[in-house]
Design a protein that fits this description.
Order of helices and strands of chain B: HHH
Number of helices of chain B: 3
Oligomer: heterodimer
Radius of gyration of chain A: 22 Å
Largest sheet of chain A: none
Largest interface: A-B, 48 and 43 residues
Number of strands of chain B: 0
Largest sheet of chain B: none
Helix content of chain B: 55-70%
Radius of gyration of chain B: 16 Å
Shape of chain B: elongated
Number of helices of chain A: 22
Distance between the termini of chain B: 27 Å
Number of strands of chain A: 0
């Protein structure tokens, strides 16, 4: 595909998104809740679309399709068990939302710090999130750089692709904070889903004469791809190791758990949850079918992550649609990165700087938060230039690292006995376990880092809590308020 | 049924559902079925059941909204 056409397409996408971002951002009020939480007033449909665009990244049509290519239907189980993890939002969503309003929390880590009555908890949790989300964001930019380089036959250098994506992400975020991010995400989610569905229909009908033809060819040519362990990639250890951290994604990843503060009512939050589930189910099926198509049409690829760029180059996909799919994948990556940048910036200004600054901080808080938007972008771009490891592996490593936050979050809402010392030890030691196992390539007893980091975090959280003194007054007030309010609203 | 009992019932149901999604496709029941009506259909139905259940859990969220 010609580089000039790709540049033109990306330019148009940037202009349209920028118009939406400026309109959505409106006049700057100088209110930090307005910039980072859209004034806690988003409607359900926009919330659902931005939640979908933030959650689903370039990983879906590149990494997940690649997993399907090498491992078969296990990739579907992995991603749909992740989707079922939204049941955590069904339980924790109203709780986050209620305490967010009552105590005016800006970030999930601020909530942890207040609930456990420890500034150190807020600082350490925020720093852990920064450490683990930077590689995850860099992976998104790596994905775009590789995709644009591949689809243009090398005419768009890798670093140019990374730079374009980073600029778009930072510009929209800077323009209007979460309002701009949410509305541009909505556009991007619509693009992602529409082009993904259209392309898979084209591939199925032009490549196989329909979906029935695709499946019957799979059943005859690659039968083992329709079962697990199947061709071998998805043995039970790999399956559990990949899936377990992702099941807890909606709680462990602050860029999505922060969104639980944002809908303007619980009714709108319900629309967000149900809308996301429908979006996720369709987008997952499309990504899996995309991987199966690549297996049938491009059987001899050495690198699974190349399946998508090469599939776009085949005759079965019209070139206009291939261009739009490229745009859809770029949109998926940009919409994930800008949300992460926004969340990390809010965590640094609220949980790190506020807790270490002496006086008169409130007047500078929003400015500090906004300054971190471009700063984090530079760091993420620097990380992307290193081009580490396979796309999916780095993504999953981040989830294993963030999984260690989950015991502290569950404890905050359901266990009065939980303590700050327990949170600190579970997050620090659990995070170190995830990092050492991942980067050392160790898998004790064959289990993946996420299984071990999760186990260590749970055991430490319980044991250290039982050995130390809980913040009894705050625990009673926090959990008591929720019990009364949820009972009044008849929410389970 | 009290809210606590409802919550417990949903938690138990979801633990069973999610464990089944992890285990059943790897058992002889499905691991030898190399057809689209094997693990592919099983996990798709699992997701649909989950979506319907979450629809029930969240059904009363909007009833007492006052913003």
């Amino acid at each position: 595909m010609k580089a000039s056409i790709i540049y033109l397409c990306l330019f148009l996408y940037f202009i349209i998104g920028s118009l939406i971002a400026r309109r959505a951002g409106g006049k700057a009020t100088g209110d930090i809740n307005d910039f980072f939480l859209a004034g806690r007033s988003l409607g359900g449909i926009v919330s659902a679309l931005t939640y979908s665009a933030t959650t689903y990244s370039a990983f879906m049509l590149v990494g997940l399709a690649g997993f399907t290519y090498i491992g078969g239907v296990g990739a579907l189980g992995f991603e749909l068990i992740y989707l079922s993890g939204l049941v955590l939002v069904a339980f924790f969503g109203p709780r986050f939302w209620l305490v967010g309003r009552k105590y005016n929390y800006l970030t999930p880590t601020e909530m942890l710090g207040d609930r456990y009555q420890s500034k150190a908890v807020a600082v350490v949790s925020a720093v852990a999130a920064v450490i683990f989300l930077i590689p995850y964001s860099a992976v998104q930019l790596i994905g775009i750089g590789a995709l644009l380089e591949g689809i243009s036959g090398g005419a768009i250098p890798y670093l140019v692709g990374v730079g374009i994506a980073a600029f778009i992400a930072v510009y929209w975020t800077w323009t209007g904070g979460l309002k701009a991010v949410a509305w541009t995400d909505s556009l991007q989610a619509a693009v992602m889903l529409t082009v993904a569905i259209l392309s898979v229909i084209f591939i199925a009908y032009r490549g196989f004469g329909g979906f029935g033809g695709m499946f019957s060819q799979l059943e005859t040519q690659y039968p083992s791809w329709l079962a697990v362990p199947g061709p071998g990639f998805f043995n039970i250890n790999t399956f559990v190791g990949l899936t377990l951290p992702w099941f807890f994604f909606s709680l462990s990843n602050p860029q999505v758990s922060q969104r639980l503060f944002v809908p303007r009512s619980l009714g709108q939050m319900r629309i967000m949850v149900m809308g996301f589930l429908v979006f996720g189910f369709i987008y997952t099926l499309v990504s899996i079918l995309w991987g199966f198509s690549a297996r049938l049409l491009l059987p001899d690829l050495a690198i699974a992550d190349n399946a998508t760029p090469l599939l776009l180059g085949l005759d079965v996909v019209p070139s206009v649609l291939a261009l739009l799919v490229m745009l859809g994948i770029s949109a998926a990556a940009v919409s994930t990165v800008n949300s992460i940048i926004l969340t990390l910036s809010s965590m640094v200004c609220r949980d790190v700087f506020k807790n270490v600054s002496k006086e008169n901080y409130e007047s500078k808080e929003l400015l500090i938060g906004k300054i971190f938007v471009p700063l984090f972008t530079v760091v993420i771009v620097a990380f992307a230039t290193l081009r580490l490891d396979l796309i999916a592996s780095l993504s999953v490593a981040s989830s294993a690292g963030l999984l260690v936050m989950v015991p502290a979050l569950i404890g905050a809402f359901f266990w009065k006995r939980g303590t700050a010392a327990a949170v600190l030890s579970s997050v620090i030691v659990g995070g170190l376990v995830a990092t050492i196992l991942q980067y050392g390539g160790f898998r004790p007893l064959g289990y993946w880092p996420g299984v071990w980091s999760g186990l260590v975090a749970v055991v430490l959280f319980i044991v250290v809590s039982l050995l130390t003194r809980p913040p009894a007054g705050k625990a009673d007030e926090f959990i008591g308020y929720l019990k009364d309010e949820l009972g009044r609203r008849k929410v389970v | 049924m009290s809210l606590e009992k409802q919550r417990l019932a949903w938690v138990i149901l979801f633990v069973i559902l999610v464990l089944a999604a992890f285990i059943i496709p790897f058992t002889p029941l499905l691991s030898g079925v190399t057809r689209v009506y094997g693990a592919f259909l099983f996990w798709s139905l699992f997701a649909i059941v989950v979506i319907v259940c979450i629809g029930f859990i969240t059904a009363r969220w909007g009833e007492n909204d006052e913003g």
